[in-house]
Design brief:
Chain B: Its cofactor is FAD. The complex is a heterodimer. Chain A is built from six helices and two strands, in the order ααββαααα. Chain A is mostly helical. Chain B is globular. The chains are: A mainly alpha, B alpha+beta.
Chain lengths: 178, 379
């Protein structure tokens, strides 16, 4: 559906010989390795989601000021300007959650909960804001002549990879309940 | 309102579902990918009588009602939203105004062909600068002897290029605002009538959306629909009914997405059990199912009112608003239930999500629905 400029493929190993020197860490340590850098990964995908949402917001704001209907820019209707206000607030919230988790990680503080919150909130925001951006553009937003339909297609993956939103909810709730 | 579908309506649902699953679904992904309209699908709908569901038999219809029409659009959209909107635009946007405002000759000449499916219909209202603001349209129709001469461009035309009969709105009085608009029936092949850009879209990709170009296009005065200056009223009342069709399309998309997500959640195992056994998934499915059910009832209520001659403007706006939002939310959640698989073209849910978005935009954006509902609840 989205991220068409990024290759996603399946890998097949058929008696593939790897020298012992390329074993990373110890045998049996893989699960720990796989899960150990998840926090940075989640902050990274949160930041990707934030970028998508910011681009969608910028595009919508620009368009809403230009597009005139009923003799005035559509941004002069509260139906549009309040939508932009909601979008901008969610983008700002995402940004702060991501920067907070990144800053905790930088300081060597455990940020499992904060990284999951950042990824969950920012990816939901990317989906919501990109869908609203297509809405602000109306029919034009549904075409490939403007980038907002691409933002919408790209945004959805941020709720799925590097731990789905459901997995983030598991992480957050376990931290809360422990 | 009767909450029980009639036997006829239940039979129609079964017939359309069988047809949709056996003959429309198998090619839906391929037609989406190739942006390909398939006239044979429309021709088969004609054979089944779907192209004239609500119209009397004397005009080539099957004399059924608007709930049956909504059921047909819903069942088609459950597997292919492009096919759903082909029928919706044909019946609600092209045939309805001719049935409602046409004289006997126009009904015999044009409605008959539309209802039997011999001809495919389309509706041309929007222009580049005139979307929600209809009265600012620039297309003109100038009286010249026994003809009108049309000049201007129309955009976002569903069934554009492939349709045979177009209901076109133009200004017969350029100085008047909405009162200067008139409606015309224009046939494909008329001199001076050509097709411009075909849009490349996010969704409903096997339903063509095309620009229409009128350059000194001469239309006989017999093709004026209703009276001069009556076009705005014709356009708006047509959209009131059209919203039922789009609401039905949205219900179909949402039901298709819900069905796919439910089946997958029962099959897909993680942590040694089906993912449906987690409340994080089953509660999501419960919310989705509740919204789909409410959307369907709103849609059938509006369609029922129209069949019974009860006002339905507010009801159809509510149905379209709620069902469109539901289709969007439910399809986004369906992709979520499928996880990474849902993001690929191997499953239909990503298509449902791309198709769902247009139901929040066309035949009056959600903002316009809120204007309509807001005016009615505050008057």
């Amino acid at each position: 559906m989205g991220l068409h400029g990024s290759a996603t493929v399946s890998l097949t190993f058929d008696n593939c010989r790897i020298p012992e020197s390329q074993l990373l860490g110890q045998e049996g340590e893989g699960y720990k390795i796989a899960l150990s850098n998840l926090n940075i990964g989640r902050i990274g995908i949160g930041a990707q989601a934030l970028g998508i949402a910011e681009a969608a917001l910028d595009a919508s704001t620009g368009y809403a000021k230009e597009r005139e209907q009923f003799g005035k820019p559509i941004a002069h209707n509260q139906g549009i300007s309040f939508k932009l206000a909601d979008m901008a607030t969610a983008v700002e919230g995402s940004k702060l959650l991501i920067y907070n988790a990144a800053s905790m990680h930088e300081g060597g503080v455990d940020c499992a909960k904060e990284a999951s919150m950042a990824k969950k909130f920012a990816s939901q925001t990317a989906v919501d804001v990109s869908i609203d951006a297509v809405q602000v553009y109306g029919g034009y937003g549904f075409t490939k002549d403007y980038p907002v339909e691409r933002y919408m297609r790209d945004a959805k993956i941020t709720q799925i990879y590097e731990g789905t939103t459901e997995i983030q909810n598991l992480v957050i709730s376990r931290q809360l309940l422990k | 309102m009767n909450f029980q579908l009639t036997e006829e309506q239940q039979m129609l649902r079964k017939m359309v579902r069988d047809y949709a699953e056996n003959e429309v679904a198998p090619t839906a992904a391929e037609r989406d990918e190739e942006e390909r309209f398939d006239r044979e699908i429309f021709d088969k709908m004609a054979e089944l009588g779907l192209t004239g569901i609500p119209w009397p038999e004397e005009y080539g219809g099957i004399g059924s009602d608007f709930v049956s029409y909504a059921i047909a659009v819903e069942e088609l959209s459950r597997v292919c939203a492009s096919t759903g909107v082909t029928l919706s635009a044909h019946i609600s946007l092209a045939s309805w105004p001719i049935y409602t405002y046409g004289n006997e000759d126009q009904k015999k000449t044009f409605l008959q062909r539309l209802a039997t499916g011999e001809a495919l219909g389309a509706y041309a209202l929007s222009e580049p600068g005139a979307g929600s603001d209809v009265a600012s349209m620039r297309t003109t129709a100038k009286k010249d002897g026994d003809d009108y001469i049309l000049n201007g461009n129309k955009v976002w035309i569903t069934n554009g290029g492939v349709a045979d009969i177009y209901v076109v709105f133009a200004k017969t009085d350029v100085d008047a605002k909405h009162k200067g608009i008139s409606a015309f029936i224009v046939e494909k092949g008329t001199d001076g009538f050509s097709f411009g850009k075909k849009e490349q879209k996010l969704g409903i990709r096997s339903s063509p959306t095309t620009e229409l170009i009128f350059e000194n296009c001469r239309v006989p005065k017999e093709n004026l629909l209703g009276e001069e200056g009556e076009g705005f009223k014709i356009a708006m009342t047509t959209l009131d009914g059209g919203r039922n069709g789009i609401a039905a399309q949205a219900v179909g998309i949402a039901q298709g997405a819900l069905d796919a997500a439910t089946d997958y959640a029962k099959e897909r195992e993680q942590f040694g059990k089906p993912i449906a056994n987690n409340q994080g998934i089953s509660f999501k499915l419960a919310d989705m199912a509740t919204q789909v059910e409410a959307s369907r009832l709103l849609t059938y209520q509006a369609a029922y009112n129209e069949s019974e001659g009860i006002p339905y403007q507010k009801e159809s706006a509510m149905a379209k608003l709620y069902a469109g939002d539901t289709a969007m939310k439910v399809s986004v959640e369906a992709v979520q239930v499928f996880g990474g698989y849902g993001y690929t073209k191997d499953y239909p849910v990503e298509r449902f999500m791309r198709d769902a978005k247009i139901t929040q935009i066309y035949e009056g954006t959600q903002e316009i629905q809120r204007l309509v509902i807001g005016r009615m609840v505050t008057k």
